[in-house]
Amino acid sequence: MKTVKIFITLKHGVLDPQGKAVQESLNKLGFPEVKGARVGKYMELQLDDHADIDQQIKEMCAKLLANPVIEDYQYTIEEGAVQ
Amino acid sequence: MKTVKIFITLKHGVLDPQGKAVQESLNKLGFPEVKGARVGKYMELQLDDHADIDQQIKEMCAKLLANPVIEDYQYTIEEGAVQ
């Protein structure tokens, strides 16, 4: 069993209105030191062991999890199920 | 300038219908090895240097970013702006 942690973010240059809203809200709540915010998605998958796990993850991201036109993704693979 | 990466996840035991939908979709798309999925949020904040940055981040999460009743969060602090 492996735990795959996937971070999906908007590509640089793609407008992020949700991030902008977070930044402005934090500024108004008394955190003027926040100069920028970007919001993305985070996923944890539990996978049975597989011969080519990197290839599998890339296919999952391309087919379902990320929008390759506007999003980038990174992932880490850890042994064992998440605690 | 510091970059803070925040991962917000549902607490263990809290039902995650979005994660369940991701898992079932991946299974149907030809990835039967996916045995579980949890979906969360990921944020990158750009912060000016501040005396007590840990305390600031905890306050931001408590006041706006996370729902402490059902969500946990983790964060990392990196020097410099995100590339």
UniProtKB/TrEMBL annotation, chains A, B:
Membrane-spanning parts: none
Keyword Acetylation tagged: no
The protein's UniProt keywords, in alphabetical order, are: ATP-binding, Cytoplasm, Ligase, Nucleotide-binding, Purine biosynthesis
What InterPro entries does the entry give?
Answer: PurS, PurS-like_sf
Top EC class per UniProt? ligase
According to UniProt, the reaction catalysed is: N(2)-formyl-N(1)-(5-phospho-beta-D-ribosyl)glycinamide + L-glutamine + ATP + H2O = 2-formamido-N(1)-(5-O-phospho-beta-D-ribosyl)acetamidine + L-glutamate + ADP + phosphate + H(+)
Q: Which GO terms describe its molecular function?
A: ATP binding; phosphoribosylformylglycinamidine synthase activity
Query: What are the GO cellular component annotations?
Result: cytoplasm
EC numbers:
6.3.5.3
Q: From which domain of life does this come?
A: Bacteria
Pathway involvement?
A: Purine metabolism; IMP biosynthesis via de novo pathway; 5-amino-1-(5-phospho-D-ribosyl)imidazole from N(2)-formyl-N(1)-(5-phospho-D-ribosyl)glycinamide: step 1/2
- Report the NCBIfam families cross-referenced here: phosphoribosylformylglycinamidine synthase subunit PurS (TIGR00302), PRK05974.1 (NF004630)
Q: How does it assemble?
A: Part of the FGAM synthase complex composed of 1 PurL, 1 PurQ and 2 PurS subunits.
Protein name per UniProt: Phosphoribosylformylglycinamidine synthase subunit PurS
**Gene name of the encoded protein:** purS
